[in-house]
Amino acid sequence: MVRLSAMGDILHALPAVTALREAYPEWHIGWAVEPQWKPLLAAEGASGRGPAMPLVDRVHVVPARQWARSPLSPKTLTEVRRVRRELRDEQYDVCVDLQGALRSAVIAKWARAKRLIGEDAPRERVARYFFSERVRTSGVHVIEQAMEVMNSVAEERLPACRALLPRDAEADRGASALAAPFVLLIPGAGWGAKRWPAERYAGLATRLHDAGYAVVVNAGPGEESLAGEVAALSNGAATVLRSSISELIAVTRRAALVIGGDTGPLHLASALGKPVVGIFGPTDPARNGPFGGTFCVLRHPESRRDHTRHAAPEAGLLTITPESVMAAAIELLQEERVH
């Protein structure tokens, strides 16, 4: 499997790969991924050679972004040779490009697999010319599309299943210390147009605290000041969580509810089957939103799909109020209590 990044995209690929693993537990499965996302596939400290976890037998660390910054440096050339050698030495029969970009297609080609499979209409059209087999997908959600590609790999229709994610014993122990029940807020996002304002997350935190829930604000890399702003504006209702990916997985598993925009940690919660309230603006939740499980997505009907990386929140996103998010949150929490 080649799906180098990013967090949400890897999580969207996991259910399809899990379906393949459960259908063929004896198959040897490898995954090529950027180093920062390896903890989504293997517990912290696990070696690249497996089994890294039940999902994959081998993790191939591919620092492609670093290569792009210094393509001709001796370090890059050494790393490229290492990855090419690793992929060829495994003698894969099938290689699947789940990213659909020129970069991922080139890396997939290095494996010299008999079958190189990708979507017929990949994200970057040039990638399709590297594939020996192209799969026409009709699913709306990217998880459905990945399942269609994996059906082609297995040459049968695979049953849908929940993603397998690694467990880290130390991270689990740390997460168990958090007060329960708690709600996890995810204020960050890939760019400004997708970010609901910090003061609204703070207002939501206050309401949740008054309703008897502890509130934890996730601070992803580079988002520490944003999370701190939410906590400060909440007047003590929320606390900031700085964690590794393994720790975030453990914390999310224990959350009563997760609230956030279109961002990796929200998709992690959905992958783990946690109740989710999604706050969406310029991205389409039908394609990229929560999938399966219990969720509610709030999005203004006039919001249009736009991946332009504007700094300011999208206009439709600003019509969503803390009161409406709180109402959705309480409804989901009550549903979970009943079940």
Descriptive keywords:
339 residues; alpha/beta; Rossmann fold; 2 domains; 6-stranded parallel β-sheet; 3-stranded parallel β-sheet; 12 helices; 11 strands; globular
Structural class: alpha/beta
Low-confidence stretches: none
Name of the level-1 CATH class of the largest domain: Alpha Beta
State the helical fraction: 25-40%
Strand order of the largest sheet: 8-7-6-9-10-11
Strand count? 11
> How many strands, what sense, and barrel or not for the largest sheet?
6 strands, parallel
**Beta-strand share of residues:** 5-15%
Instruction: Report the average pLDDT across residues.
Output: 95
CATH homologous superfamily classification of the largest domain = Glycogen Phosphorylase B
Helical run tally: 12
Judging by the overall fold, what is the CATH architecture of the largest domain? 3-Layer(aba) Sandwich
> Kindly, what is the distance between the CA atoms of the first and last residues, rounded to a whole number of angstroms?
36 Å
Radius of gyration computed on alpha carbons: 20 Å
